[in-house]
Amino acid sequence: MARKGGDWPLHAIYLGVILLLAGVTLKSVESFTLTPTATRLLSRHAGPSTETTEGALQSMIVENTDQRHMIRPRSWIGWGLLSAGAVLVVHGIILKVK
Description:
The chain is mainly alpha-helical.
């Protein structure tokens, strides 16, 4: 049985709920602390090249210690996700009702 508006309204609602949950998560925590393994992975793929002095020093420190990286998300990111999620949920509900 085919719906009149297709699956777009339902997908919009699901995506909106996911964005709302991500926004609430970012607003409710102050920082995220990565495990040493995740810190090493982040250093290898997103850090400076090991050919530079800074990159070689950072690589040596991260590989030989149990260094943990801390991520502090900016407050506006949570508000942006909450806003986008609310708009998508409302838009999906309006499309589903029509």
